[in-house]
Amino acid sequence: MDIAASLTGALQAVTFADRGADEVTGLLVDAVVGWGEQLGWRTYRRAASVVPLPPPYERQHSVVDVAFARPDGPPVVVEVDHGDRRRTVDKLAAEAAAGRVAVWVRWGPGRLPAPDGVLLVALPVTTRTGLHGRGKVYSQTPDLPAPEHSASGGSYTTEELDADMALVLRAYAAFARGDIDGAVRDLAPDVDWIEPDEFPGGGHHRGPAAVAAYLRDSYAGWAELHSEPVAHRRGDQVVIVHHVWGVLRDGSRGEATVADVFTVEDGKVVLMMAYADPADAFR
């Protein structure tokens, strides 16, 4: 079994968007655990390493993120890091010297080579400045499927859109120019508008007035805003993958890509569900 290739495939299937460094590391550790469990291996999180801690704690041992006991070979130990960490390299070299299969999962950029006997799983991610002072955020998303009526992805002109898609995109154009009344013009009186709780002002908003208040607050956070919505038809729903970027009121740069799923009935939006990870909107 090619352990590095197998684990690489499992981790490349993990999708996330605009997550902090600790969140990404946690997601990847969980995925490593799931990979080993699928193989039927006994799993240990934060297992004891062969490497002792530095003085004055040398009687205690360091830990590895995940360790696996398997019936057909030596133990497998895995460390997950953002970029290069010299201590990880030294620890895994010691694990390999002790006869364990040592694997270094390094996500993001890195220059340190893996030491002899250590398997390297390198995961590139995209990096951008988060919204509202979140610092750097990271994404690993698959290529999203093209709309059913088109052989390629991309933005669509009104000539290529059906009526519901054109209606929704008009709302995005209104929002981008600060016309909040125009953005909510085609909402049903009892529309349900649901944003992720982690978004500023997120949660469940009901009715055009509540949605307008949310959109005004969102728009007010930008000193300069660029909006690029891309429409996809998914059965009875319209999915908008929305890339926004620009300058926030505090002078920092902001950028994010989210997905909004609309249900339109009789020319009115009755439901909108937003997803922080665009891939979730297509599942």
Structure in words:
The chain is built from 6 helices and 14 strands. It is of the alpha+beta class and 283 residues long. It folds into 2 domains: 3-137, Restriction Endonuclease (3-Layer(aba) Sandwich), CATH 3.40.91.20; 158-282, Nuclear Transport Factor 2, Chain: A (Roll), CATH 3.10.450.50. It has a 6-stranded mixed sheet with strand order 10-9-14-13-12-11, with helices on one face. Strands 2-3-4-5-6 form a 5-stranded mixed sheet, sandwiched between helices. The chain has a 3-stranded antiparallel sheet with strand order 1-8-7, with helices on one face. The longest helix has 18 residues, at 21-38. The chain is elongated, with a radius of gyration of 23 Å. The two termini are 31 Å apart. 29% of the residues are buried. Mean pLDDT is 85; it is low at 143-159. Residues 133-155 are annotated as: Disordered. Residues 168-271 form the SnoaL-like domain. This is SnoaL-like domain-containing protein. It comes from Dactylosporangium siamense. Pfam families: SnoaL_2.
Secondary structure blueprint with pairings:
Elements: H1 3-12, E1 16-19, H2 21-38, E2 42-52, E3 61-69, E4 76-82, H3 86-97, E5 101-107, E6 118-123, E7 126-129, E8 136-140, H4 163-176, H5 180-183, E9 187-195, E10 203-206, H6 208-220, E11 222-234, E12 237-248, E13 253-265, E14 268-275
Parallel strand pairs: 4-5, 5-6, 9-14
Antiparallel strand pairs: 1-8, 2-3, 3-4, 7-8, 9-10, 11-12, 12-13, 13-14
Number of individual domains: 2
**Major pleated sheet:** 6 strands, mixed
Strand content: 35-45%
Classify the helix fraction into a percent range. 25-40%
